[in-house]
Structures are given as C-alpha cells and as structure tokens.
Design brief:
Length: 63
C-alpha cells in the first residue's frame, strides 16, 4: 500500500480558489467550452460561431 500525502500548500490554494467568483469572461469561456464538448464529433461549428449565436440570443448582436 502506498503512503499518500496531501500537499498542504495545494489544499490552501484550492480553498482560496473556491471562495472567489469567476469573472464574466471565465464564465463565457466555460460556457463555450461546454457547448463545444456537447456538439457531435462531426460538427464543424467553431468557437466564434457559438459565441456569435450566444451574443444574438442575449441581444448583444444583431443576426
């Protein structure tokens, strides 16, 4: 059996990270990444196209 040890500095950084809210840009990147990962493998849709669709849905951009 191995003797596993937890790096205390890593735990401290993880704890600090959980107390921060992600920025709007981080949330948008995560949202696009989630959509990209949900697309079928044969899809040729780009990140830019997804971003355009999201901006249209949010009223930020005209179709």
């Amino acid at each position: 059996m191995t003797d596993l040890r937890t790096d205390e500095s890593l735990l401290a950084r993880l704890k600090r990270a959980t107390s921060r809210n992600p920025s709007r840009a981080q949330v948008e990147r995560q949202r696009i990444s989630f959509i990209m990962g949900s697309l079928p493998e044969e899809s040729d849709m780009t990140r830019e196209q997804i971003q355009d669709v999201l901006e249209q849905q949010e009223g930020k951009k005209q179709g």
